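Archive entry: two folds, one per protein. Generate the first.
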Amino acid sequence: MLELATASETLFEPMPLGPRGPRERALEEGILMLSDADLLAIVLGTGLVGCSVFRLANELLDRVGGLEGLGRLGPSAIAEIPGVGTAKALRLLAGLEIGRRSLMRSIRPRPAVCNSATVAAWFTSRLAWREYEELWVISLDGRNGLRSARRVAQGGVHGLGITSRDVLRVALQDTAAALILVHNHPSGDPTPSDADVAMTRKVAEASNVVGVPLLDHVIVSSTGDYCSMLDRGILPFE
């Protein structure tokens, strides 16, 4: 069970914001220029009366054996270290986990999106059973590898509203080289409606302007059937 932070944690010395503080140097010189202790001080935020946050960060690293040792400890063990407490312990572990996930996701192979069947197989189990429509954007890299799959709109039983800006904002945030749209038809019939085609045309025109082409729009259904606008010759638009 996690321990509550001690009362002494409220008696702190704030981290100096002077010109040579780690926050200031991170902004001026870049976060890569900071030492492990500097980074740890930013995450900790405060020290204790008589113990600056910089001293606390250095003592913490010495005690646990550096960042590697810190990552091997649980929140309770870190919280027991004088000057840390539960809240700071969780912030430290959250920061380490963010870094770990970022690294793992940057080096792992990205699954290739080969064709509409691949897209339909992945999304049928996730969307086909829903009683309302959802629109997702698949962002691809330059080799059609999956960068991300994110929901951009959710509607009621009568459909959903979406603009080209909503779609492209996600694709640009994820630095997509190309994109695919996916949505579901709760009716069970994956045939694209006139509204589906009109919306797809607007997104395709806008995506061409910003250099992130729309490759396909796949519609899945509860029956397991799907429709690819690329396969049907609706895309690309002339």
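Generate the second and append.
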Amino acid sequence: MVALFVTSSGTGIGKTYLTAALTRYFRDNGRKVEAYKPVISGFDSAVPEESDTGILLSAMARPVTADEIDRISPWRFTAPLSPHIAARMEGRQIEFEALVEYSRSKATSADVVLIEGVGGIMAPLDDQHTVLDWMAQIGVPALLVVGSYLGAISHTLSALKALDVYGVEICAVIVDESPDSSVPFDDAVASIRQFAPRSKVVALRYQENRTATPPAIGDLVKLL
């Protein structure tokens, strides 16, 4: 049984893309897989199929119904903001201990369990806790998804340092190519490998069809 936390150096970089791709890969190879997005902001209930939650349900070949949404994303907020701000705008708050307990209970629900975080590793969840605190409390290994945009190398190294300080095990760093970046993709990947020599780095070339499983996913799975 494998449980992994999919996190990132920031928002909009590729967590859901990677989680969905891994979900499809494991399903196609006969593994029972469950993917969860416990906390999501920017959730539009009018078009749930377009949300990260909807994308993960589709990857699991599950219907995008209210019950399924509740099952994998119990903390949902409308505003596309940091979770603690989005929750406050609705007069709500994320109960950190309940989130940790939920995540721990789901970590053994299938042969492969993927728990996708929200925002970057330092995104606040409430007035005291960040995603990094959440990861440290769950205690499962993580996949760090980063980009290749200008500034991504620094963001990646900063994220790795923070994860190391908190004792979070990193299975691999996945560099998801940022479209239209001014930084050559191969140079970004090489630099991350140079400055993070202890990390396993997987290069994920950008492809227009975001529902097709990238070839590099097979290479990543071999590292797990």
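Annotation attached to the second fold: The first helix runs from residue 15 to 28. The chain is about 40% helix and 15% strand.
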